[in-house]
Amino acid sequence: MNWIRERIVLLLGIAVLVYTFVPIFVVVLMSFNDPASRLVYRFDGFTLHNWLNPCEDPSMCEALARSVEIGLLATLVSTVLGSLAAFALVRHDFVGRSSMNLLIFLPMATPEIVMGSSLLALFVAAGFAGQLGFWTILIAHIMFCLSFVVVTVRARLAGMSDTLEQAAMDLYATPQQTFWKVTFPLVFPGILGAALLSFSLSFDDFIVTNLNAGTTTTFPMYVWGVAQRGVPMQVNVIGTVMFVISIAIVLGGELRNRRRQAALA
Amino acid sequence: MSETVRRKGRTGYLLLLPGVVWLSLFFVIPFYSLVATSLYNADGSVFRGYEMSWAFGNYTNAIQEYWGPLVRSLVYGGIATLICLVLGYVLAYAIAFKSGRWKNLMLVLVIAPFFTSFLVRTLSWKLILADDGFIVNTLQALQLLGDDGRLLATPIAVVAGLTYNFLPFMVLPLYASIDKIDHRLIEASSDLYANPIVGFFKVTWPLSLPGVISGTLLTFIPASGDYINAQLLGSPNERMVGNVIQDLFTDAGDYPAAGALSMIMMILIVVMVLFYIRRSGTEDLL
């Protein structure tokens, strides 16, 4: 009884964690489902069919490929632009710092539906109503990923003192050498984290995308569409694969950290 | 730690320029377009074009017509935020103070489930809450739910979905705040004969307020603007303001009404956020 009393908070915390994993368990289970009918969403029997034929519905894989393509491009552009801005915010002096902070904070505090509809209002007013599609989605994704990149890279930079860089300069490194040999490697984990965050934000976005996509379909939009008329179980295969990949990335990073700390100790 | 010297000169502006241009073009200017759209003459259409007529009537019409979904969004978002606060506080407190060497692993596990597609996750709630599912059967066996009672297509399902989907937005800021608390203060309170509950409300809770405030804002804003949960887990009776805006834009093509409703949503949120920050006395949120 005492054992439980001492650990009650931890046990409750673990219970909350378990709760967050329940839907993931369902996604994995359903990826092996052999549905009796497309219209009834429940587990009917075990099969490997979904895993062996992931692209049974070619439109799903097309949507998936489009999401990956948009995600990669949006990540590339937003990570570069956001990291540059983060360097400016931490390392450089300029007029208008507080309005700059506000400009970066606001997109994160605006509901997606408002952000999406205002962008659509702009595209329509500018006469692009007929050209909604790949490029308008990409523009939107870069826009909402930018703030998250700035915040992530800025946190990394702000927690870093510049003594190592001063040491490099004292040892006659040129500013370029100092940047590429000292500063960049130190900031890189922050930039990588920002890139991963951008990709998952872009890949998963539905609300902003749906308003600005025209007839183009991304993976979340595909899921939205089939949710009304019967979900192919392959959707759960994709969900499982995404989960496994992200767990592998995060745990891999954590393992490397532990090993490095062990090596330093 | 030595204070980093901020360099003066042109480089800072050059580094900022591309990001600022992008955000101005695709975040600030669109806002202006949204305001303009919300004041267009409601008789136009996307293809015939709209006339700018300062039609403030769009706003009163939108409020009259969509009063229900507006209130529902705030209520559902508010309840989900409260439940997230309770669950999130327990989890964040456990990670910060009780997890020992498993701290990093538990933090990773907090975000891990949320890397799976939002829509796929929400669909699996549809299965969990289904009419012949485990939860509904158990609740019926316990007489907590009538024999023909259901969870899907009720406000409960929508709030449950919102709570689940936005929980990490609550846990992470709470954790950041609780983790910073000096444990000696809590020990001091128990040395001074405060029981754990009094100690919690007099020491831990006040010190974690910054996390509570940013966590509740980060949860409430996306939850009240969401329409995926209402669409997939609810019925037309649970329509939130997001569903209405989406339909007005894409199906009905009524841009002025949709614009006005978006603006109302934004204004409501800004007012609530300002009021909330004033009341709780933290103005260094940025």
Can you walk me through this structure?
- The complex is a heterodimer of chains A (265) and B (286).
- Helices cover 77% and strands 0% of the residues of chain A.
- Chain A is mostly helical.
- Chain A is globular and about 70 Å long.
- Chain B has helices spanning 10-38, 57-65, 67-98, 103-111, 118-128, 134-141, 155-179, 183-191, 196-207, 209-225, 228-233, 241-252, 255-280.
- In chain B, α3 (67-98) runs parallel beside α7, α3 (67-98) packs across α12 (241-252) and α10 (209-225) runs antiparallel to α13 (255-280).
- The mean pLDDT of chain B is 86.
In terms of topology, how is this protein built?
The complex is a heterodimer of chains A (265) and B (286).
Chain A: H1 2-30, H2 49-52, H3 58-91, H4 97-109, H5 112-125, H6 134-158, H7 163-170, H8 175-204, H9 207-212, H10 219-229, H11 234-264
Chain B: H1 10-38, H2 57-65, H3 67-98, H4 103-111, H5 118-128, H6 134-141, H7 155-179, H8 183-191, H9 196-207, H10 209-225, H11 228-233, H12 241-252, H13 255-280
Helix pairs in contact in B: 1-13, 2-13, 3-7, 3-10, 3-12, 7-10, 8-9, 10-13, 12-13
| Most residues in contact: chain pair | A-B, 92 and 93 residues
Main β sheet profile of chain B: none
CATH class of chain B: Mainly Alpha
CATH homologous superfamily assignment of chain B: MetI-like
Which oligomeric state applies? heterodimer
Tell me the distance between the termini of chain A. 38 Å
CATH topology of the domain at 58-231 in chain A: MetI-like fold
| Rounded average pLDDT of chain B | 86
Strand content of chain B: under 5%
Membrane topology (chain A): Multi-pass membrane protein
Keywords (chain A): Cell membrane, Membrane, Transmembrane, Transmembrane helix, Transport
Transmembrane segments (chain A): 9-32, 70-90, 102-126, 132-157, 178-201, 231-251
Subcellular location (chain A): Cell membrane
